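[agent] plan:
  1. take the single chain provided in the ticket
  2. run structure prediction with default settings
  3. attach structure tokens to the ticket
  4. add a short note for the reviewer (M.T.)
[agent] executing step 1
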Amino acid sequence: MERELSIKSKDFFLVFILPVIFGVSYSLLELYTGGDQVYYSKFYIQVRELAFSQAMLLAPNSLGSGEPVSVFILWLGSYLGFDKSIYISVLNSLLAFFFIKFSNKEGVPFFITLLLIFNFYFIVLFTGAERLKIAYIFLFSALFFKGFSRNFLFVISCLSHLQIFLLLPSFLIYSNYHFLF
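[agent] step 2 finished; step 3 output follows
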């Protein structure tokens, strides 16, 4: 019975916190228009009428890099006509969702998870690091699967931002922890 109550309280936490994260994210994105957002906003507007192949050609000059998965995700939102702040806030909520679910899976207390979600690094991911955010969404989602699905999502994560390759040793250790210890 206690385990059942625990699961319900974690679900309540998610139902409560995700709209808060969406709102905070949206507010931050509306206020933060400098830095990398200048380039992401310009790219988002430019690709609205373009084919994906054209967006891929534009990305290296506009964003400084052209990882295909991130370009596709950004292009898709623009092409479908979603307001950028709303679309990115949905992505931020997805990132928070997978991070919170992972934290719950690993037994991290709620207040620690909350502190982590609102720390400086997550605020940077929420506001100015779109490609890295997309990569982390796929990385955290990969942690809920095994075998091919996990590996596929990890590769997709790497194709979203090359920095994820630096996490490869940690990912392999986490994925094979039960074999190592």
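[agent] step 4 note for reviewer: Residues 1-5 have pLDDT under 50 and may be disordered.
[agent] ticket updated
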